[in-house]
Structures are given as structure tokens and as C-alpha cells.
Amino acid sequence: MHFATKALRVGQDPDPKYKAVVPPIYQSSTFAWDDLDNIPKIDYSRCQNPNREMLEQVIAALENGEFCTLFSSGMAAVAACFALLKQGDHLLVANDIYGGTFRLAEKYLPKQGISYSSFDAQDPASIEKVLQPNTKMLIFEGPTNPTMRVPDIQKVTKAAKEAGLTVVFDNTFASPALQNPLDLGVDIVLHSTTKYISGHSDVVGGATITNDERLAFEIYEWNKAFGCNPSPFDNWLSLRGARTLSVRMERHCKNAQIIAEALEANPKVTKVHYPGLTSHPDHETAKKQMSDFGGMVSIEFGSVEEARWVAEHVKVFLLAESLGGVESLIAYPPLMSHATMTEEQRLERGIPPTMLRLSIGIEDVRDLLEDIQQAILSFPTKVSVNA
Ligand SMILES: Cc1ncc(COP(=O)(O)O)c(C=O)c1O
Predict the structure, then answer these.
(1) End-to-end CA distance of the chain
(2) What is the mean pLDDT of residues 51-72?
(3) How many domains does one find in the chain?
(4) pTM above the 0.85 mark?
(5) Which of 12, 65, 267, 371 could form a disulfide with 316 if both were Cys (CB 3.0 to 4.6 A apart)?
């Protein structure tokens, strides 16, 4: 089966009793046993639930993986991967990783006796320089947030595997519709299913996918032990979203390409970060490993005031955190996704206060373009910090 068909058919046969084409919501915490000799496959919803099982099967299939575990959030999925480490272990974190993952590594892992170092995912040779005898895991992502860099997954993974590390890749920004990191050698793929997989900004969730049975078992056990399971309704919503992932991604990518090209030609925009632009430093890598360039675009302006003005004067775009939903969002990283970092840490990662991040939705692109252009044009050129 091909991607779009898998999304609609894997794990989704009509329900056995009434033949409903759309799976019912199994809003039950517990499931009856026939007798004491046969433990039911699903007996308690913290451990498993039919809606969760269906979605796990679909997401595993979309990532070309065997085992998927679902979580109540993307961060719980990240935490489950980190829980594979033990006291005394050392972790390598890409220096432009999502802010929440960075916070976990910096603030919480040390409390468990786990240390971390940063590496540059654009430069796989940097891995060797920060390796320690106790380094056990490496985590990276791409396109990165919000600079849209695209690390070469195969090269980074090869370098990490040579050092014997477990490789984790956060595929949230691309979605399985655009790239499948397990095919490139990664051990565990993770998602904030909140974003493209669910796709309608109405649910928070996470997933890990792997082909390694031992890793899958440990992750599942951690989920069960810590109770980070998503609810039946959340799984039902996410499955409804996943069914249309392929067509949504087509439109996200098409709209994003048009907007990125138009903004690159706009003299008021000083920089556009989008891997679909030939000017993007990782355009060739993106062409090689992604089937399209994604729906996320970051832009920079000449001043902080201009960036903030545009964020506050769009009318079709909504000023909000998150990404990957059908509606377009505009975000200001210093106050949103990267608020927990210091200004210095953000600048080190190439995130100036003049940057905005756009999650391009599936609206008519003419409305999106007109909206952002009117917001840019309406900026009163005399406004300054002291005005
Ligand atoms: C790349 C990435 N990974 C993980 C997460 C965390 O996901 P969640 O908010 O579902 O916990 C996010 C959230 O924005 C993200 O952008």
C-alpha cells in the first residue's frame, strides 16, 4: 500500500458489531474478561485502548516502522526516549533542538545524574569532538525550529552509530508524509502528533516509532508506568487527522513555497528561511531526503519593531504558538517556542529577535499573501523603540 492509502486503511476495518466505517470512540477505562484463563489483549485504558491501538498501527505504517507508542504529548514522547538513559549516562543534543527538549536536557536530566553536550547537526564531524566514554544517545531534528536547517539524517546517524549511540530523530516538522528517518538508519522517530499528524489544532499528543523490539518494549513500559497515555477521544481525533495527512501536506508545501518565494522578493523582508528556496543552505540536502519542503517558513525583518508589528497586524494568520494545523499561524519565538532560552542562547542558535515563524496553513494562498503583505506595508517607518 502507498502512503495515502495506508493512512485510510491500516488498522481501520469497519467495527465488528455495527460495521461503522468510522471507528467508534471506545470511551471505556476498563474492558471485561471472558474468564480468568485468558487475559484480554486490551484490559485497561492506561495500558492500551482500541482507539490508541488503531492510531499506533497507522502511524507505525506511515513511518515504515513496526512499533509505535502513543503519548499524551510530544514532550512525553521525548521524555520516554530520555528514560532509556540511566544515571551516569551522557546525551548528545543538537544545538538547534526544540526548546522544550532542550529544557528537559538542561534542567531535568541532570537531576537524574544524566549529563548532556550540544553538537552541530549540520556538521556530523562535531559529534566526535563531544563524545564521552559514557555517551549513549543522540537526538536531533529537521527542518529545525525556527531556523529551518535540514541536517543530513543519514550522515549524522552514521556518525552516531559508529560511536554506538542510540539515535533519536524528532520528525514533527516534516511529518511522515515528507520523510521517513527510520529508512535512513535512525533508531527511534518521535512526533508531536499535536502538529501535522493530527493537523487541526484540536488535540495534544505524541508518538515514538521504532523497528527495535527491545526499545519499543522499554518505551511502552515507561508510558504505562508513568501514565502518559492519550485519551480515547484524543486518539480518535488524531486518527481523523492522520487520514488526510497526505493531501494536507501537499497544500501546506505548495502554499509555503509560494509565500517563501514572494517574501524573498520583498525588500522589507531581510531573510527568508525555507528549504524549498534555492538560496537556502540545505536546499540540496532537503531535495535528497524530503519528498517536499514542508509548511514552515521563518522570516526576518530589519528591526524588532517591524517584526512585532507584522505579528500583531496580520488578520488571516493568527498570532499563536504551535504549527501544523490547517489554519495559518504566526509566532514570535522569543516570547513563544523559545521563551525559556536566554537572549544569548537564542542568538547562539541563530534566532534573532527580528524573526517570525510562519506555520503555513491550507487556506487560499492569495489570502495569505495579501494578509502578510498588508501587515508589512502598514508598518509606520518612523516607529522606533522610544516612540
Ligand atoms: C519539534 C517539536 N518537538 C516536540 C514538541 C513538543 O510537543 P507537544 O507540545 O505536543 O508536547 C514540539 C512542540 O511544539 C515541537 O515543535
Answers:
(1) 60
(2) 98
(3) 2
(4) yes
(5) 371
From residue 218, alpha-carbon distances to 85, 208, 224, 318 in Å are 11, 12, 10, 40
Amino acid at residue number 288: K
Beta bridge partners of 67: 210
Do both 277 and 315 map to the same domain? yes
Return the CATH number at 146.
3.40.640.10
- Residue 35 is classified by DSSP as B
Q: Which of 210, 242, 274 is the last residue of a domain?
A: 242
Contacts of 99 (CB under 8 A, 6+ apart): 145, 337, 338, 339, 340, 341
Give phi and psi for 38, each to the nearest 5: -125, 110
Q: How far is residue 67's CA from residue 182's CA, in Å, rounded to a whole number? A: 11
Domain contains 383: no
Tally of CA atoms within 13 A in the half-sphere of 355 that contains its CB: 24
Question: Within 10 Å of residue 337's Cβ, how many Cβ atoms?
Answer: 20
In this structure, are 108 and 255 located in the same domain? no
In a domain, 282, yes or no: yes
Q: How far is the CA of 192 from the centre of ligand 1 (A)?
A: 5
Domain limits at 284? 246-377
Q: Do 274 and 155 share a structural domain?
A: no
Both 203 and 258 in a single domain? Answer: no
Give phi and psi for 227, each to the nearest 5. Answer: 70, 45
Question: Which CATH number does the domain housing residue 252 bear?
Answer: 3.90.1150.10
Q: What are phi and psi of 166, to 5 degrees?
A: -80, 130
Which DSSP helix (H) or strand (E) runs through 45? none
Q: Is 332 a known active-site residue?
A: no
Reported as a single tens digit per residue, the pLDDT across 185-208 is 999 999 999 999 999 999 999 999
Q: Quote the ligand 1 centre to 358 CA distance (angstroms).
A: 15
Residue 127 confidence (pLDDT): 97
Same domain, 288 and 205: no
Kindly state whether residues 71 and 127 are assigned to the same domain: yes
Spacing, Cα 341 to ligand 1 middle (Å)? 16
Using DSSP bridges, classify how beta strands 296-301 and 318-319 pair: parallel, antiparallel or unpaired: unpaired
Q: Which residues line ligand 1 (CB under 6 A)?
A: 73-75, 98, 100, 141, 145, 170, 172-173, 192, 194, 204, 206
Distance (Å, whole) CA 302 – CA 356: 12
Q: Ligand 1, closest atom to CA 195?
A: 10
220 is a catalytic site residue: no
Domain boundary among 219, 242, 265: 242
pLDDT given at position 67: 98
